[in-house]
Amino acid sequence: MSIRIGILTGGGDCPGLNAVIRAVGKSATTRGWETLGFHNGFEGLLDNDYRVLNYKDMDGLLLRGGTILGTTNKGRFAVKTGHGETHRIPEAVLARTKENIHALGLRALVVVGGDGTLTIAQQLFEAGVPLVGVPKTIDNDLEATAFTFGFDSAVACATDALDRLHTTAESHNRVMVLEVMGRYAGWIAMHAGIAGGGDVILIPEIPFTYESICTKIAEREARGKHFTLVVVAEGARPKGGDFVTSGPQETNREARLGGIGAVVAAEIQKRTGKETRVCVLGHLQRGGGPTTFDRMICTQFGAMAVRLIAGEQYGYMAALRPPEVVAVPIREAIGRLRTIDPKGELVQTARDLGVSLGD
Ligand code: F6P
Description:
By secondary structure, the protein is an alpha/beta fold. The protein is 36% helix and 17% strand.
């Protein structure tokens, strides 16, 4: 019987998941291996819900958004809940997973996901499941890799949104607030904010004050700039304040952030008297196909994952350490979110350009 491997995509979707599936499927085919794709993340593993990924199934996947396998960021495996709390996978779930993998004759599993999914993967690996990882998330908050795939595509979307808000803000002499995703890290806000010429960028790593934001707006007015672009990460919060969440906490899933953009916009309008509008970019950031950069790293990551299995280097994941794609232990990528250094070069670049970080 030929060697069989499995692949699953977990957590929130993002551009490039299908490009990874293609790279894994093609690399496996090159070696004469068979690939099973599990549906809806780890849930498919538990329910024996999978399909064989044939060579023909790889057609068009490089540019296709979403994931043909489906995914979920809740369910029976969920180990990250609330504000980043971690739990153990229930023993019964673990035992059933191992039984299914054994019965299917899988040599190993490729797990494609972000912090939550790779935390589950590490627990499975420690319980004896042979697997390798591929780092995904638009949030770019994983340790051990310079970039996760999906991030560049999300930033491209947010930058395009800012370009569009720029022209309408200027026409109406308005303040425009753009709320972007990123959970507890400000990478999307910072990269899109700088690339899209934002005047104020609010990130979770630097708590803000409304006085500081309004001072920046007043300064621009005094210099004849009667419009202002404010980029707010969904996890940004005022000094001494808490995160803004959308809806009540659901069981077996992480807290849903969202709504800070509207709060900030209302406060700016109240304090400055300037007409202010808010735009929440939401899941537009996660939809559509991957950028060229993401297609490249997805392909390199997928090929590396299969090479790791060939070398039986389990418990490792592909990672970008520019200019190389390398293998790193999954445990080095999880447990601690990679956030922006408030004293780092990125923040300094923004400050050098006169961008207000709201502090
Ligand atoms: O982790 C990716 C992400 O898009 C976050 O930036 C965001 O907070 C969250 O997922 C949204 O999740 P959902 O798709 O469940 O609304």
